[in-house]
Amino acid sequence: xxxxxxxxxxxxYHELALASRPAFADSLGDIAPVAFAAAAWTLAxxxxxxxxxxxxxxxxxxxxxxxxPFDGGLTAAVELVSALPAELTASRxxxxxxxxxxxxxxxxxxxxxxxxxxxxxxxxxATLLVEAPLPxxxxxxxxxxxxxxxxxxxxxxxxxxxxVRDLTDLVGPLLQQLDTxxxxx
Length: 185
Description:
By secondary structure, this protein is α+β, with helices and mostly antiparallel strands. The chain has 6 helices and 7 strands. The chain has helices at about 10-20, 20-25, 35-45, 85-90, 115-120, 150-185, and strands at about 5, 55, 60-65, 75-80, 105, 110, 125-135. The radius of gyration is 19 Å and the shape is elongated.
């Protein structure tokens, strides 16, 4: 199952990374790869790059990577579309014929309801928030202060590639279970 993957048009990301040295300024020369990898991820995803260099499964609403202030590690926060919890589906007594709607879909992609949708019907949309540490082992070292723009862009691409793999390993089984559960109902 495709969970996170890189867009074929890597040139867009490479050009953005080349032009975004200030986004990496605080992380250059750092002994830890965390801040650099987080900056690379931010540039590779919407809204910095839209459509993103990193693409994701239709159930992924947001995916962020940031330095954990407690230990300096790298923490992922991924918001996923989910079905309603069993406590709400066991009985529809709360429903009261109000026309409740769930997640709208547009061309197979889960989307937030429009203002028009919200003016007509109540919506109840369940999400899951995955927050987890990510391994640092394979992340490239942050480039030195005197690194060329090309070196920074190349390291940023490597960091994003590693994060795509690690996030797929983390979130992929959850998405597979969510999709399997939906197909069974």
